[in-house]
């Protein structure tokens, strides 16, 4: 296994904008870093489950995913567009109304099961970089934990960014919400385009 290629792929895919990272930044900006850590751990836990599933059922997934990939993609895109709409229509006083409802552990975990970017990333990274070289239970669990921790670090870094610039972003909240919503729309569009032009 080429470790450099593996780490580059994992880093670029994990730290680029996607639903997890954008939502973590928005939640940290809105509710503070401490209240967003639960969401980050939820993302990590959900990601760990996805990585374990991809590891142990990789052959099955390769046969089954083409049949459900379009449905997963459409559900994921609709959810991302819903998040973008909610973000664009939120007002500054919405910050207190939704405190704790949408940035918890369970939401972060469940988001992974409708996140086509995360699922396809899991299938790709496991089948390309891990399974050809490592098939023991210990290796698969180790790599799943490693990838989940990278997922936590990426959402946590985006949360820190949202928290550090909280006062600046509070001043320009509507512009910030529009930019983040547009990034979500872009992510949703790139997932759809990627699906159809492969």
From TrEMBL:
- Chief location bin: membrane
Cellular localisation: Cell membrane
Q: Provide the topology term for how it sits in the membrane.
A: Multi-pass membrane protein
Indicate the transmembrane segments per the record.
6-27, 39-58, 64-85, 141-164, 176-197
Per the UniProt entry, what are the Gene Ontology biological process annotations, in alphabetical order? cysteine export across plasma membrane
Q: Name one Pfam family in it.
A: LysE
Keywords attached to this entry:
Cell membrane, Membrane, Transmembrane, Transmembrane helix
One GO cellular component this record assigns the protein to is: plasma membrane
Does the keyword Transport belong to this entry? no
Task: Provide any one GO MF term from the record.
Answer: amino acid transmembrane transporter activity
Tell me the protein's name: Threonine/homoserine/homoserine lactone efflux protein
């Amino acid at each position: 296994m080429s470790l450099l290629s593996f780490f580059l792929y994992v880093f670029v895919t994990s730290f680029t904008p996607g639903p997890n990272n954008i939502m973590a930044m928005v939640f940290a900006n809105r509710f503070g870093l401490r209240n967003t850590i639960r969401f980050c751990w939820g993302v990590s836990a959900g990601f760990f489950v996805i990585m374990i599933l991809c590891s142990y059922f990789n052959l099955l997934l390769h046969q089954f995913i083409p049949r459900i990939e379009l449905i997963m993609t459409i559900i994921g895109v609709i959810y991302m567009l819903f998040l973008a709409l909610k973000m664009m229509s939120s007002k500054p006083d919405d910050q207190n109304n939704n405190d704790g409802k949408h940035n918890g552990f369970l939401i972060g975990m469940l988001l992974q099961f409708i996140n086509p970017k995360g699922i396809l990333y899991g299938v790709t990274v496991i089948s390309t970089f891990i399974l050809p070289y490592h098939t023991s239970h210990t290796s698969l669990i180790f790599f799943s934990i490693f990838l989940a921790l990278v997922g936590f670090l990426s959402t946590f870094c985006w949360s820190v960014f949202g928290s550090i610039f909280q006062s600046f972003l509070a001043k320009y909240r509507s512009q910030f919400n529009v930019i983040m919503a547009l990034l979500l729309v872009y992510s949703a569009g790139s997932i759809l385009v990627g699906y159809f032009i492969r």
